[in-house]
Specification:
- The structure is a single chain.
- This protein is 33% helix and 23% strand.
- By secondary structure, the chain is α/β, with parallel strands linked by helices.
- The chain has two domains: 220 residues, Rossmann fold (3-Layer(aba) Sandwich), CATH 3.40.50.12780; 91 residues, GMP Synthetase, Chain A, domain 3 (2-Layer Sandwich).
- An eleven-stranded mixed beta sheet has the order 4-3-5-6-7-8-9-13-12-11-10, with helices on both faces. Strands 18-17-16-19 form a four-stranded mixed beta sheet, covered by helices on one side.
- A hairpin with a 7-residue loop joins β8 and β9.
- The longest helix has 30 residues.
């Protein structure tokens, strides 16, 4: 009798937790419909609370503020954030762990989200259970706003060594998720899709592209998801068109990082990326240190308003993007980012000192319909190697066209070598690096 009562209480608590999460999700979705003044007030309140916490609980930020001659109360609005120096990943890595983690935090209760190391500098990032829920809400908000349903089956092809056990509510047919590693062979990934028959697929761009090419080659017609979420890498029009055509599903791209979760995402209008402004402050900073205006390219610097275990305040991500002042017709009041143009480390450096964004280089290849997979490598300042994966359509004429096209784009003396290869390997992280430059900017 007592055992049955305990079990009943546990089940009731689980149901209450799910109801609580769904209530919070509803509240989170309402934030997107707030007026600009209401949103600004919410952001400023959260910012002030975060800065007060960081100053009194995190040694690094207390020193940073003191050395800069400022205190939390000096930051009265979001515009005042510029008084705080920017923090880099390298600076955080150099710190003892206790200097960047908030006092009184029990790390054994936290989750360690180690970065993939795409910058060559892996970082341990600790988040509390409460912060995990915040990230869950952020993802589910995007999920439901783009047509996801409670009863949908979702397949995630992700870079996890250890997957979570199935949640109790998934056994009831609610928010069912299956995980498979991106390190699995492409045949195994296709097999998982055919067996699970998901309504939703979520993975990185290069994996989607490889799956689409393989399914097309094998003439597989039984992959019919309704929605595809792409992330981690730059999504070009060519990639989107290929995946949409093969799987007959709408593709929604989103921008995220382990430091703060989802930063921005596409809605059904595909008019840009809605910035998650109720949880993140995003700055776009030009090379001269000034703020980029709408339509101008700038380096992305974030302040995560929900990160209390390991705060990220004016943190340089190493990505470049373009802000927008346009309004989306979907009704979401969050501001837009036009596009992510790539990582700073992936820009091509020209002899004149100019830089060419990886997005521009990828868009140029979109025009070469014979090429399905490629990689651009800047080995030395005046040499660029372009590897093209061999297909029947890649002819000498195509190779000549590629070399000529890139000489015109770069418009400077550059030795361009185009080579046809059998395949291009992914990095240890599982990501596929389309543009790779050995020229450092910093």
């Amino acid at each position: 009798m007592l055992f049955n009562l305990i079990i009943a209480k546990i089940k009731l608590k689980k149901h209450v937790n799910l109801i609580t999460y769904l209530y919070k999700l509803r509240k989170s979705r309402r934030n997107q419909r707030q007026s600009l003044s209401e949103l600004e007030k919410l952001r400023e309140e959260k910012l002030k609370a975060l800065l007060h916490h960081a100053y009194y609980k995190v040694d690094y930020y207390r020193r940073l503020f003191d050395q800069s001659g400022i205190r939390p109360e000096d930051i009265k609005n979001i515009q005042d954030l510029t008084k705080i120096p920017i923090t880099t990943r390298k600076e955080i890595q150099a710190l003892p762990q206790e200097n960047i983690i908030a006092k009184d935090i029990v790390l054994s209760h936290c989750c360690n989200l180690r970065t993939s190391g795409s910058t060559g500098m892996p970082l341990n990032i600790f988040v509390s259970p409460k912060e995990i829920i915040s990230r869950w809400l952020s993802y589910r908000r995007m999920y439901f706003d783009n047509g996801g349903k409670l009863t949908d089956k979702e397949l995630r092809i992700v870079n996890y060594q250890k997957f979570k056990e199935k949640q109790w509510f998934q056994r009831l047919g609610v928010l069912r998720v299956r995980n498979i590693s991106i390190f699995e062979d492409i045949e195994e990934q296709l097999k998982a899709i055919l067996e699970f028959k998901p309504e939703i697929i979520r993975t990185q761009v290069s994996t989607l592209k490889d799956l689409a090419i393989k399914a097309q080659k094998q003439r597989i017609k039984d992959i019919n998801p309704r929605i595809i979420f792409s992330t981690s890498e730059l999504l070009t029009k060519q990639d989107r068109d290929l995946v949409t055509f093969v799987f007959q599903a709408e593709v929604f791209d989103y921008y995220a990082c382990n430091e703060c979760g989802i930063i921005a995402w596409e809605c059904k209008e595909h008019f840009g990326y809605h910035l998650n402004s109720d949880s993140i402050i995003v700055e776009f900073i030009k090379e001269d240190g000034t703020m980029a205006k709408a339509g101008e390219e700038g380096e992305i610097v974030i302040t995560s308003l929900n990160s209390y275990t390991m705060p990220f305040i004016r943190y340089r991500l190493g990505d470049m993007g373009i802000p927008s002042d346009e309004k989306c017709s979907c009704g979401n009041k969050f501001p837009l980012m036009k596009i992510i143009t790539g990582r700073i480390n992936d820009y091509i450096a020209l002899p004149s000192g100019k830089r060419v964004s990886p997005y521009k280089l990828m868009m140029a290849m979109d025009k070469i319909i014979d090429v399905k997979k490629y990689q651009i490598i800047q080995e030395i300042g005046k040499k660029i190697k372009i590897n093209i994966v061999q297909t029947e359509a890649v002819s000498d004429e195509t190779i000549s066209k590629i070399a000529k096209g890139y000489r015109e784009i770069l418009n400077e003396y550059i030795d361009i070598e185009v080579e046809v290869v059998k395949d291009i390997l992914v990095e240890k992280t599982g990501k596929f690096k389309v543009i790779s430059s050995n020229i450092s900017y910093r």
